[in-house]
Amino acid sequence: MTDLDTDLLADFAGRLADIARHLARAHFRQTTAYERKADESPVTIADKAIEAAMRDAIVQRFPGHAILGEEAGMTGADTRLWVLDPIDGTKSFITGMPLFGALVAFAEEGVPRVGVIEMPALAERWTGARGNTFLNGVPARVSGCAGLADARVYTSSPDFFRPEDWARYDALSRKGAMRRFGGDCYQYGLLASGHCDLVVETSLQPYDFMALVPVVEGAGGVMTDWDGYPLGLSSDGKVVAAASAALHAEALRVLNA
Questions:
Q1: Labelling 125: which of 18, 100, 209, 232 has CA 20 to 30 A away?
Q2: What CATH number did the domain enclosing 33 receive?
Q3: Does residue 126 sit in the same domain as residue 241?
Q4: How many Cβ atoms sit within 10 Å of the Cβ of residue 70?
């Protein structure tokens, strides 16, 4: 992929984020009704409308590309893939909490190349591409925190962990300087901008994490699964995002002790 190609794809990902922002704001604190999906997670008409609009835009601009979305699944079989989460944090959205986002990723051969974290209610957007990350057009950088004892540690919720995984996370996070809960994709934007240092989660799907990788890594961070392997479509949903290679290595040692 050439630099120009990546720039064009990042620009288009931004246009998809514009669609998500517009529709999410139209529904936010207006739409409270929801349905339960097969996995018991909630879905609203806003989730469905945003993904449908983004899919339509992709089909018009890149008709040969495959699309993976949380609501409509996989369409197409091309190695060029758009990965969409129309509302990341639907429970926040339903309950009026502004810390929900929309995630857009572009991947080639399963490797995420472009990622966008769009926060509609906050008018904040992180874009990661070509080894750089920007928050609303301004370069974003991780804190560089190198040790767990100094780290501000985040995860979304204990509810997402199996008991054995929670025990591992609990042991890890209690070694940090502080630990906080909540935020879904917003945690990773905070990490990319240096406001927290370590995010550890489980039970994520590709549409939950593919967009996060270019954002975190473009800001100078490290993001893998709990075994240290790169994240991709076949990952098991356990992720570690850290503000430095040293902190990442220490986190993996404690998780796997």
A1: 232
A2: 3.30.540.10
A3: no
A4: 23
78 and 54, same structural domain? Answer: yes
| Tokens found for residue 33 | 């009704």
pTM: predicted TM-score of the whole model, two decimal places? 0.94
Taking each helix axis from N to C end, the angle separating 3-27 and 45-61, rounded to the nearest 10 degrees, works out to 150
For 165, phi and psi rounded to 5 degrees? -75, -35
Whose structure tokens read 């969409």?
84
Of 106, 139, 172, the one marking the end of a domain is 139
Task: Quote the CA–CA distance of 85 and 17 in Å, as a whole number.
Answer: 11
- What does the pLDDT look like over 41-88, one tens digit per residue? 767 888 999 999 999 999 999 999 999 999 999 999 899 999 999 999
Closest CA to 104 of 139, 67, 131: 67
Token reading at 55: 């899919």
Distance CA 214, CA 221 (A): 10
CA 191 to chain CA centroid, Å, is 12
Token pair belonging to 43: 């879905």
